[in-house]
Design a protein that fits this description.
Length: 468
Amino acid sequence: MQTVQKSSAKKAWAKAFQKPATEFPLTPLSIIEGEIPASLNGTLYRNGPGRFERGGISVGHWFDGDGAILAVHFTGGNATAVYRYVQTEGFKEEASAGKLLYGNYGMTAPGAVWNQWLKPIKNAANTSVLALPDKLLALWEGGNPHALDLQNLETLGKDDLGGLDGGAYSAHPKVDSETGEIFNFGVSPGLNATLNIYKSDATGKITKKAVHQLDGVPLLHDFVLAGEYLIFFIAPVRLNLLMPAIGLSCFSDALEWQPSKGTQILVCDRDLNIVSRSETEPWFQWHFSNAYMDDSGAVIVDIASYEDFQTNQFLKEVATGETHTASKSKLARVCLNPQTGKVSNIKTLFDRHCEFPIVPQQNVGKFSRYTYLSTVKEGTDISKEILNSIARFDHQTDTITEANFGENLYPSEPIYAHNFIFTVVYDGNSDSSELWIFDADKLNEKPVCKLSLPSVIPPGFHGTWKDA
């Protein structure tokens, strides 16, 4: 009798999540094709989860994986790279024990329920990076950032930035390229959470802090700088704090979509004082692209928005290597009056599923003609595939310029520097990773350079560029 082999439903990207990522020391990178632009002199940093299991037990959500940093140093037409896990206390304890010990966003701590009460959730240091003059911060919005050496990525320990007082520091700080000021926030949970807003100098040291009350405990991942304003869109997702508090649920499973609350809008000035509060129609967003004030004094805000919170379920499934939840976003533009917070118009700019929208750093908080983003190729089944393309949206012509990726190639968030776009690409055909560099004005042409990376870098989240 002939045995019929059952084909796997998993897509090519799943292989990147099947085994822990392998660190590598400072290593010269070989060129696959093209050449490294001689003008590049600085470092590309990227952060993302690199390990999704220990002792045969898997984490509960993509957000739970241990953070691992890639640094690619460019100088004189050459590139060297280093890839290291952030040595958090939780990472070191679990590595020593050979098993998972802590709960996190999408999982409770292993063992009996009472075990949840004895352990805090693990700081995974896995979401983004902030490059300061003398250190790199690995960011994770549930707690303090971890400081790392800019060159070799040695973990130096948690960093309080001179004023966090043990509080959370979001993964999406906004840097004013003219003043060097850094704005960020953190949320402190409680029956009603508090929003802690921070202003720092160019070294990262906190110089001013403000605390504002929130409605319930929302999921607040990002915000936006718009000229003289800081703007928060608080989506109608609320944490049922009781369940994780008594150890019967992880945070992810205790988040409830409550569209009747609408999206709350909080506008603050650069002194961190509230200017206005308002409410508009419900949506969810993880990420903003940018914002700016137009000539009329209105604020224009661009976001990757979702109609509901199904995105959280999809991202939970990613860590398993097999997804089945369709969750579509779009690039949307919101126009509001900052003095009242009232929304006057919402329109769709780009209706294909997209994420990780960015503008050049020098345009943060100001008008930017171009937005670069991760998206999916036409015809992609978004319930089965992760992001598999990158594109540039031209706000002057309302047109898209898209890069060309072959089958089973998965680019990460685009990062802009010196009119180049960098993206780490996972090749599901060969189970390998590469760094592609595009001319930012010729995104639809072949990359100017492709570099081979020594080991697989699992698809991750956010990165940045720092000039030498």
